[in-house]
Amino acid sequence: MSEEVTTRVQVRLTVDGTPVEQEVEPRLLLVHLLRDLLGSTEVAVGCDTSNCGACLVAVDGEVVKACNVLAVQARDSDVATLAHPELAGPAYEAAAAALPVDRLPCASCRGGAVFGVGEWVERGAPDGAAGVRRHLEGLLCRCGAYDAIVDAALEAAGTPAPARKEGGA
Ligand code: FES
Q: What is the residue with the minimal CA distance to atom 4 of ligand 1?
């Protein structure tokens, strides 16, 4: 009977400004490298279907779902997480500043909101409130705080949030 041989791969990358090196299985997802092996618990896991967007991070400035990328694909890259979104650029710093933890009811989607909003701001904040709603279509906020996220996005982009009727959207 033959023994199963698992090849492990050495991965070097920078996470939130700190160089790290880790031996991983080739099938390991980036989100599990970050959370389970490197202790970056700011990276959230909100689903097991790659649908919620809670795990967004920036890899070399590109926003990705960390549950949709293999750790080996992030080899030699610079990863910025919710712990240091400013390392992804000023738009992400502005998004994080506009979305403090206490602006969201439970904040479990905050990583997705910060990186989603940051990406929209970095692209020039196209089409205002409607544009950011479209841009964040893949983000699931279980508390339904989409208005707060849109208002924060407009603030991050330097645009005043629209007045809303009390209790309405
Ligand atoms: Fe990655 Fe839900 S945990 S999309």
A: 50
CA of 50 to the centre of ligand 1 (A): 4
Cβ of 47 less than 6 Å from ligand 1: yes
CB of 34 within 6 A of ligand 1: the answer is no
Query: Is 65 in a helix, a strand, or coil?
Result: strand
| Closest CA relative to residue 24, chosen from 14, 34, 33, 35 | 33
The pTM assigned to this predicted structure is 0.92
- Per-residue pLDDT tens over the stretch 64-119: 999 999 999 999 999 999 999 999 999 999 999 999 999 999 999 999 999 999 99
Domains of the chain: 9-80 (3.10.20.30), 85-156 (1.10.150)
Nearest-atom number in ligand 1 for the CA of 56 is: 1
CA distances from 60 to 13, 87, 93, 106, 153 (A): 10, 10, 15, 29, 22
Centre of ligand 1 from the C-alpha of residue 168, in Å = 29
27-63: pLDDT as tens digits: 999 999 999 999 999 999 999 999 999 999 999 999 9
